Amino acid sequence: MKVINLGETNSALNNIIAQVRDRKIQKDSLRFRFNLERLGQIFAYELSKTLEYSPKEVMTPLATATIETFDTKIVAATILRAGLPIHKGMMDIFDGAESAFIAAYRKYDKIDEFHIAIEYCTCPNLTGKTLVLADTMIATGASMEIAYNKLVDEGGEPSFTHFVSPISSIYAIEYLQKRFPDNTCLWTAAVDEELTSQSYIIPGLGDAGDLAFGAKVG
């Protein structure tokens, strides 16, 4: 697995990452969601540079223009619910993409013990297509792996998979690199080096789903 950290190069992306981490700015849920959407757009734009292109002829009101556009068939997937704004941003760029949705969450067996549970998945045919699977953060990498395997079980084997996670822990990156082959790539913008005993990223940004959509019961 290849890892691309866009945050290593200074750009306006860093300003957005700073805003989604800022506990004062986070209080505005509309702005928080919009910032995640902007991150999705940026990742989609950067990711688009790796796709396959060919020239196409477009008729303008005056003449014919030849433009290189990508031919790659994309399925944009996200892990509910925190990944929804990022998915929206990616679909703004990949407007012809298909979509997949999967619910993967921590189900606690005890106070400090949990497993990743999946209760919902909808997926188009993935065979021979490029899968882009997004979530706001990856702490351990387990939910991303389980979500990917479920999508493959439902839709078949993609030709290439891009994982998008604006904030990633170093532990998750190492975990995924051990388990995924060369035809996969992880895109991130910040790598955090600490996890709590309950596998929460430090400094992270808190609970992205709650910040975007409100606190959940239980």
Fill in the CATH topology: Rossmann fold
Tell me the total number of β-strands: 14
Coarse structural class: alpha/beta
User: What's the story with the biggest beta sheet?
Assistant: 7 strands, mixed
Task: Report the mean per-residue pLDDT as an integer.
Answer: 93
Strand content: 25-35%
What does this structure look like?
This protein is an alpha/beta fold and 218 residues long. The chain has one domain (2-52, 69-212): Rossmann fold. The chain is 32% helix and 34% strand. It has six helices and 14 strands. The chain has helices at 12-21, 29-48, 84-93, 142-155, 170-179, 208-213, and strands at residues 2-5, 53-59, 64-70, 74-80, 98-110, 113-122, 130-134, 137-138, 160-164, 167-169, 184-188, 190-192, 194-195, 201-202. The strands form four sheets. Strands 1-11-9-7-4-5-6 form a seven-stranded mixed beta sheet, sandwiched between helices. It has a three-stranded parallel beta sheet with strand order 8-10-12. Helix 1 (12-21) runs antiparallel to helix 2 and helix 2 crosses helix 3 (84-93). The termini are far apart. The model has no long low-confidence stretch (mean pLDDT 93).
Helix and strand arrangement:
Layout: E1 2-5, H1 12-21, H2 29-48, E2 53-59, E3 64-70, E4 74-80, H3 84-93, E5 98-110, E6 113-122, E7 130-134, E8 137-138, H4 142-155, E9 160-164, E10 167-169, H5 170-179, E11 184-188, E12 190-192, E13 194-195, E14 201-202, H6 208-213
